Amino acid sequence: MFSKFTSILQHAVEALAPSLPLQEDFVYHWKAITHYYIETSDDKAPVTDTNIPSHLEQMLDILTQEERERESGETGPCMEYLLHHKILETLYTLGKADCPPGMKQQVLSFYTKLLGRIRQPLLPHINVHRPVQKLIRLCGEVLAAPTENEEIQFLCTVCAKLKQDPYLVNFFLENKTKKLEASKDSGAGLVKEDPCSPDTGQNQNQTPSLVTSTLEAAACQATSPGEASPSPVHSTLPNNDNYNLVSSLLNLTKSPDGRIVVKACEGLMLVVSLPEPAAAKCLTENTELSQLLTDRLAQFYRALPQSMDPLDIETVESVNWGLDVYNLKEDAAAFAGKRALISFLSWLDYCDQLIKEAQKTAAAVLARAVRERFFVAVMEPQLMQTSEVGILTSTALLNRIIRQVTSEALLQETVYFLLGEETGPETLAGITQHPLRHRLIEHCDHLSDEISIMTLRLFEHLLQKPCQHILQNLVLRCLEERNYIENKQQEEREEREHMENGQPHDAVDLEEDPLFSDLSPDNRLSSPDWLSCSPPPSTEHTKPDGKTEVHKIVNSFLCLVPDEAKSSYQVEGTGYDTYLRDAHRQFRDYCGVCQRWDWRSSPKSFEKCNLDSPFFEGHFLKVLFDRMGRILDQPYDVNLQVTSVLSKLSLLPHAHLHEYLLDPYINLAPGCRSLFSVIVRVVGDLMLRTHHIPEFTPKLLLVRKRLLGLEPEGMSVDHVTLLEGVIVLEEFCKELAAIAFVKNSSPKITMIMYSFFCC
């Protein structure tokens, strides 16, 4: 009570007294603080019962006022006094001793406000960055400490300052070897003899008191060999640099207070983004940041239920890290494991964002750590198991991970984990070289339709990721030599490309089939140059009426399914035109992604191709073509997913892939197949089977209307799997026709055609 009365009286006197010059006022407040330690012998009273907080606040106000009154960048006498008399060193020592109780909290607050309010750069000064570094080491020492809030505010302020001037981070990379050597040279009279010892502003010959004992004890403890040695957290790390800022932030990420954890994560996000190479190296080699990321990721993953509904995993709301406000009762009512799933996805989002923001070399190291310590160590055994329930759950989780990852480094490591790093030609004997890749592709043709659909969906999402290695590894490396084309027909093919009206060599196969009696393709369309997001039309075979040869390729796909097996023309809004707009938009998006890749704008010349080497379509295309060949005998949902993956591949602006998937007139080498040839065989099988189904056309129309929700479910229809397969086949051929048209036409022609069809 008496101390509070004294404080009030002092404020009243100060208010009535004439104002002193700023420097005198500043020195007065600082000496008032040091006087407390000289005159007081009771070190049990909390600091809030003293005038220390008020004096510290007054000192801050004076420094702020002084800077405001002076020209930008000019250091005033008060700031000079603070720097010259090492006031921050003294405050650090008092804060470390926490004398009187609560002093550490006051010191942290003073440092935070000083760094935050003063605009001129303070950290370059040795009498600022050195005590700041020492104070950083005090943060995070004790979890759930009463000073946690002040600690994290102080650390985040330092991080923000380093973000403004990244080169300053080099002051905070502390060499442990040099520190050990310095500690050995320190003597018993360290506080008095060390030129760096703090200045209390008092006569050194005065009688020892609370200030003397407090400063000596704290200073000796601060520079003792015990503190100079590496902390146990870093004892196994090889580098000789301490990154105490990161270590303290990492410690605070373990706080039971969620708000402290979020702030610590924000601080780490700022630190990893600093461009200084030395800091990035120290971050990855001499801190446990990567271990924190991967251990917590594994911890959240292992907390998930062994069995989860894939639909729940796919549809759970996206949660950005730090914003996952939740209600346990509501989450439990939604589905079992929702809270655990959101926690996992939230931390995954943090890892992804942190790696995206990180300095380039640091990002690569952190992403590799996630691959080795989480994907390989934790997820791979789950994906390789034989339990169908386990496979389905782990594949659905992997699918969600792929959708969520956006950082380039983490995406690349994820792809390497799934597919391997091979880019050379794939062989049939070598498809098991990367076991996980082989297993995932095999799962596309699994006995369980659910597993097949989920794995196909996983690959569909992979194909839409901006990573060239995905496409190179899965398909492009098998098409590089164009050895799917018959070698002996090379000269005829090249000659035909320059003829205006010539019969393609392989047209005989189509003419022998009654389905194609109305087709007489004159020329093949040479692959366009994808030099922009929407390619220019081919003018090599432009007809007098202005139409290009693209209509022949479009008609080749549109006429694949015979009229008696078509049903879309009887239902409004299901024409070919419905696919044009989507195809144009998707192709434009793909071109935007692929534009920075070194892709061929035209096919590799035959002179440079090794056409004599055996062709293998690749494990991925093999499974897709096998699935496509069974479209009449597979469930509707499986067929939709298979055709969706193939359409994504067809949209890619790569000359060889376009030729292989969308050119009906290529001369296939013996034993080779293309997407068009697979569909031709399916149509041939369909023609044989439709004659044995009574009332085929009415049943087909009924099934289509039921799929569209235009007819209620009634009596079961026999051969429903085949009928649904025919409907998917017809729609897929229309989609391929639209893709072929868009890829071979200008945007203007595409929109004119779209408007024409809509009319």
What are the low-pLDDT stretches, counting only 5+ consecutive residues below 50?
13-18, 180-198, 200-209, 217-239, 498-548, 748-759
**Shape type:** elongated
Counting DSSP E segments of at least 2 residues, the number of strands comes to 2
Please work out how many helical segments DSSP would assign: 36
The major sheet is characterized as: 2 strands, antiparallel
Task: Report the structural category.
Answer: mainly alpha
| Widest beta sheet: strand line-up | 1-2
Instruction: Give the helix level as a range of percent.
Output: 55-70%
Strand content: under 5%
The end-to-end distance, rounded to whole angstroms, is 90 Å
Mean pLDDT, rounded to whole units? 82
The whole-angstrom Rg is 36 Å
In short:
The chain has helices at residues 2-16, 22-39, 52-69, 77-84, 87-97, 103-117, 126-138, 148-164, 176-185, 190-193, 210-222, 225-228, 244-252, 258-272, 277-285, 289-302, 310-315, 328-334, 338-357, 360-383, 388-404, 408-419, 435-443, 449-463, 468-479, 490-496, 507-511, 550-558, 580-594, 619-629, 636-651, 655-662, 675-690, 696-707, 720-743, 747-758, and strands at 174-175, 241-242. The chain is mainly alpha-helical and 759 residues long.
Could you characterize the architecture of this molecule?
Helix content is 59%, strand content 1%. The protein is an all-alpha fold. A two-stranded antiparallel sheet has the order 1-2. α15 packs parallel to α20 (360-383). The longest helix has 24 residues, at 360-383. The chain is elongated, with a radius of gyration of 36 Å. It starts with a helix and ends with a helix. Residues 13-18, 180-198, 200-209, 217-239, 498-548 and 748-759 have low confidence and may be disordered. This is FHF complex subunit HOOK interacting protein 2.
